[in-house]
Amino acid sequence: MHPLRFTLPFLAAGSLAFAAKTPIPIAEIQRNTPVDFDGEVRPFLSDNCLSCHCQSTTKGGLNLETPELMLKGGDSGPAIAPQKGSESLILQAAAHLDDDLTMPPRDNKSKAKNLTPEQLGLLKLWIDQGAKASPKRERVVQWQPLAGSLGAIFAVAVTRDGQFAACARENRVFIYHVPSGRLVFNEAAHQDQVNALAFSPDGSLLASAGYREVKLWRLAKEEGKPAPAISGPADNAKSGQVDGKILTALNTEGKQIARVDHGEPITAFAVRGDGQRIVTAGGNAAKLWSPDGKMVAELRGNRFAREFVEERDRALQVELGNVAYRKEAVETAQKALQAGQERAKKSAAALAPKEQEIVAKQKAVDTAKAAKTAADQALAGAEVEVKKAETALQDAAAKAAQQAATAAEAIKGTTTVDANKLAADAATGLQAAAKARTERDQREIQRKQAADKVEPAGKQLTTAEDALKNAQTAKETVETEIALGKTEEQKDTASVAEAKAAVETAEAARKKAEEAVQSARQAATAAEKAVRAVAFSPDGSTVVTAGDDQLIHTWSAENGAAFDVLKGHQAAITALAFAPNGELVSTAGDGATLSWNIAPGWKLERTIGTGNAGSPLTDRVNALAFTPDGKQLATGSGEPSRGGELKLWNATTGQFVRDFPKVHSDSVLSLEFSPDGKFLASGAADKMARVTELATGKIVRGFEGHTHHVLGVSWSADGRTLATAGADGMVKIWDFTTGDRKKNIEGYDKEVTAVRFVGATANLLTSSGDNKVRLVGLDGKEVRVFPEVADFMESAAVSADGKLVVAGGEDSVLRIWNADGSKLAAFMPVGK
Predict the structure, then answer these.
(1) Cα–Cα dist 560/290, whole Å
(2) What is the pLDDT of residues 342-354, one digit of tens each?
(3) What is d(CA 173, CA 185) in angstroms, rounded to the nearest whole number?
(4) Secondary structure (H, E, C), 99-122
(5) Sign of CA dihedral 114, 116, 119, 124
């Protein structure tokens, strides 16, 4: 047995009772070349030892990841003794050379296996050779083709305006233009599978994450280029006849297709090549028609202006919620103040009776003290009298005895004294002694009577003193309550004042938000200018309108959904047409003619990280989040079981900003910034959700409660509530201001893979492994289950207005729904 007796640091608690008792043979390895720790020893230690003895889990204080850490050892000393393999604790434990010294434990949760004789021999030889670390060398990643089975969608994202939705399949990124239903980007973005996607707040950037790298893709919007002038509505004459506000649409043969009433004098119109859509312009709007003369949609105003109104309105809802929250805080503070004042009033009212009671109790004590003193004095006097009587008795008895003796001698004739007289004297002496005895007995009775009064008097005094003490304590308690009440009243008064000030601030913010909404609505109304020109794209998917607002608007030719707004002209636009190459050509009143490529395109702007061992990013990047202003990008990664990594980057330049060390002890899996951008919430494989303050880098909240990986985090629009989703099949709701858990939302049969607050509402979007994408309230009640989900769902996202829900999972289908649960699109993998 090794002289260093220890509680085996290699084993979990309670595992010794199951340790194997039969030693494992150690193979004799015959070789002269040095054993490479990284290439030969660390792999089998990693398989069977490091799950319990690594940076994040150092059972027994022991970390076996490097030779230096082995030599440092754990609670019981070094695990290795260089050049002394047989004496090293790690070898004795792994070879089961001692019944109390065995590793790994039997039936361990990590499913670690005993080392083979060859592995033990290699471990011994490495130690005998000096237990040297491997030479430092750059690890070259040898990439292999991705398996076709990796087609599952592990990440989805949607722009705030719902224009674009993205998903990742294998190592490819797919971007879809939602209103048109078109795939606009499909590229092998990374060597490894893509685990995270995030759009910037303005929708102009998409970040994708792979192994040790992040790529930023930019939405390329081409500005209008000078082009030859075009004639405006001349071509329309071939496809229709206008009579004021009435259009008679004709086909190529000149036959009537439809007759529509625009409602205002028509200034321009166009008929799609297939005759299935007609667009008319007049006044401040264009209208899209079907061949039966029914209006499909009204194409009015500026999409961005409308969306700004909606955004301001959501901000107003948040401010209204803040006002209600602050008013409730005032009520709570006022109730606390009122309750404190009532307590203080009762305490003050109770003080006078307590003081009166003390006076009465003090009087009783004084009386009891006087009685006790009198009893003590009486007893003392009685005891003096008893002593006097006893002395007199003894003197009388001695005298009587002497007289009796003298008389007896006289009777015997030994003296000449008169015997009779002596006898008489003796008799008198005996009488005197008897009298003295009687006196002594009476005095003893009096002493006993006095003593009997002392104890009751003492008890009465003790009782009176106790009563006085209790009364004094009661008074002190009341006085303490009064003092505390005054302090509490001051605090509550300050709280009321603070709460009222917060209400005023919230009311001011609400008023400002209302003004912003009103201003945005006025701007949106003002943006509605006369429409002068319309045209259909050659492929018939897009309808284009333009006019006095000097802007070009693109819309879906099927349903009228707004696409984009193009800015470039300095005067009212009078004509639109498509060139043979598919580009849009526009002419304005100032004679300027521009050509446009209206097809959205995405291009790689920059890469963060190198994807190799020298990358500043560790392992797979599992989570991405842009700050609310879009200026910075957070990445979450980390080497599994060893530590989590949180870093912040400049989204414009790609430059490193800062890291947040030791926030998590395992891989970071989810990220989201608070609405005000001051805090970053993160969830990780260490089962924790934490909130870090960006300005200081300090962890300001830690939310513990999940029993498995935290796969999702999301802030409410007011920033006061945080939701977390876990692989334990649970969604937890937390109060960020207090750190308290508010609610557990259960009912999930498998992992909850994503959680998102929906707009400014109190509803949550969740995806889970039980083949469901759901809308749930903060009370845990199910609002809606989105239809046609067939497999394990890995990710979900929702547009800022809550009108668009996107989700993907194991079946590789990107599903998109409207807020009401109706299916909008289902994008299959390319080629399927």
Answers:
(1) 11
(2) 988 998 898 899 9
(3) 7
(4) CCECCCCCCCCCCCCCCCHHHHHH
(5) positive
